[in-house]
Amino acid sequence: MDNKLSLLYRKDGTQKILSSLIAILLGMVFGSILIVIVGLTSSDIGGKGIIDGIKLVFLGLFSTGTKNGSLTFGFNPSLFGDMLFRATPLIMTGLSVAVSQKTGLFNIGAPGQYLMGTTASLMIALSIPTSSVPPVVVWLLAFLGGMLAGALWGAIPGLLKAFLNINEVLACIMTNWISAILTSWLFDVSRFSIFNGPATSAMGNPIVLNGSFKNLIESTKSGYVYMTSYNKVATAKLGLDKIFPGSQVNAGILVAIVLAVLVYIIIHKTTFGYQLKACGANRHAARYAGISDKRNIVFSMAIAGGLAGVGASLYWLSGNTEFAWQTYQSLPAVGFNGIPVALLAINNPIGVIFSGVFMAMLNIIGTRLKALTAYNEYITDVIIAAIVYLSAFALVIRMWLGGRKKKASMQKPAAPVSGTPKAEKSAKASDQTVSEEQKGGAQA
To answer: Helix, strand, or coil here: 128?
Structure first.
């Protein structure tokens, strides 16, 4: 039994899972320590508030509210559904980073690719009249448009890297800010004709939108784009709203999981995936072997950008989320959060599903801390950020676990196996010693 556990521990996959789990545990512990420190230095929190804060760090997803001043816990379908909804874009941006890493590239351009996917999917979803085109067709066109926009935006750093040897990180940073400014400008100046059929406002009154993507119906939301549901375009629920009532969850999470499995198959089970990994291991050796390194670099970044664009499409085509274009004079956090998602998963596409869900869970925990305790929004942001950055230690922990494995194997002497030259040599030496002892005894 011990031998089987030892063999299981030494497997590379086990090392990866253990390193990620240890990183998660360290992050949660750090968050708890931070809650204690803040609680001890604040007169508004007290001992009970500290205990409640620690409980929510570990059990926030199961929080159901308060009763008689005490926290209550149980299965909360609304929180679980919202977690899956928020995990959808994180899974896609995590896949975006993971795919580029397989080719030896660092895609820090996921925020820009996400924004371009957002722009394309929203404009297509809102500009095609559903009175003449079925909403499901409009949804599909918007989904593919977002994916294509992200892929084209991701291909730009790939082309610069492949043909001009410009560092992809620098190229991605430039394209990120270009996309942020371009997105704001497009939604500000666009005067396309939106759908020509009447929609229904939040008050139930029939309305007809004018030629602008900006939400002009509600005067307080002039910086927002119309939700796609105004054009009757929204991702199907497929019964998930019955399982998780009161949440924003839809079939987008199922699409993300299917795409993650497809990416895993492509990377690990196809010739194309082997070529991508060969370029990542050694670009020059891959070229010597007849693999086009330039082509694979461009393809890798284009695929990465397409995945980030898909994340944007799935999020904004939900039909229940408004896009605030004015805020995108800065970059979306979901694009950068794909980096720790990929790190936690050790760039494994299947692992990205679980790490993306975990990161979404942290976001839910932050909202529960703010709603149910005296901790303000800033402390929840700090806790989430600390856990995000500690996820990078998954690689360091894996190296430490691997070092322990090597050290143990070096200290343990290898026993000679019967039938090997070393074993035969040892047996001959032993027989020779016995025969000499017998000879010496006979002479005596």
So the answer is: coil
Give the whole-angstrom CA distance, residue 325 versus residue 438: 95
Does residue 60 have a pLDDT over 80? yes
Q: What is the pTM of this model?
A: 0.84
Element (H, E) at 184: helix 168-189
Tell me 236's DSSP state: -
**Residue 70 burial (CB < 10 Å; 0-12/13-18/19+)?**
exposed
| Rounded-to-integer distance, Cα 133 and Cα 232, Å | 11
Query: Once rounded to an integer, what is the mean pLDDT over residues 334-342?
Result: 90
Q: Is the pLDDT of residue 204 over 90?
A: no
Please give the angle made by the CA atoms of 256, 258 and 264, to the nearest 5 degrees.
Answer: 105
Among candidate residues 312, 352, 343, the one with its CA nearest the CA of residue 328 = 312
Residue with tokens 């994180």: 90
- H or E element at residue 163: helix 135-164
- pLDDT score, position 28: 84
3-state secondary structure at position 331? coil
Question: How far apart, in whole angstroms, are the C-alpha atoms of residue 50 and residue 67?
Answer: 18
Q: Which residues pair with 200 in a beta bridge?
A: 206
Per-residue pLDDT at 375:
85
Are 332 and 177 within 8 A, CB to CB? Answer: no
Q: Which pair of structure tokens corresponds to residue 370?
A: 């703010």
Contact 253/221 with Cβ under 8 angstroms? Answer: no
Compute the half-sphere exposure of residue 160: CA atoms within 13 Å on the CB side of its CA. 16
Domain positions in the chain: 1-75+374-411, 78-356
- Summarised one tens digit per residue, pLDDT across range 259-277 is 999 999 999 999 999 999 9
């998954």: which residue's tokens?
Answer: 394
Q: Is 206 helix (H, G, I), strand (E, B) or coil?
A: strand
* Calpha distance 382→46 (Å, rounded): 20
Say how many residues make up the chain.
444
Asked: is 78-356 a CATH 2.60.40 domain? The reply is no
The Cα–Cα gap between 133 and 67 comes to 50
**Tokens representing 410?**
């070096």
